[in-house]
């Protein structure tokens, strides 16, 4: 197996987390599950993340920060046409990534503290 770059490893870990969320409850996912799925060892995982939660927060941020950057300026405008444009864009974005959002929000529901986890991923 070829060696992955740091960026590739991080992206593979995020994708692995999303894939595992389809198969298991968040609480059931172990670091070993992630490392096996991605084909790395636990030591490599810990070079990038302190915990499964840190990976999950990074995953949330990777989905939400680009969204925030793209749509926040529209929220500063004050007319109705811009509000309709914003709503349309938001719905299209959510539709495009509906599978990822469904997995993430399911985990947030299980955590019972979804709002603070989402906020912390944007900070």
UniProtKB/TrEMBL annotation:
InterPro entries documented for this protein: Homeodomain-like_sf, HTH-type_Tx_Regulator, HTH_TetR
SUPFAM superfamilies referenced in this protein's UniProt entry, alphabetically: Homeodomain-like
Alphabetic keyword roster: DNA-binding
Taxonomic superkingdom: Bacteria
Residue ranges flagged as DNA-binding region: 30-49
Domain HTH tetR-type residue range list: 7-67
Gene Ontology MF: a single term: DNA binding
The protein, known as: TetR/AcrR family transcriptional regulator
Organism: Ligilactobacillus salivarius
Biological classification of the source: Bacteria, Bacillati, Bacillota, Bacilli, Lactobacillales
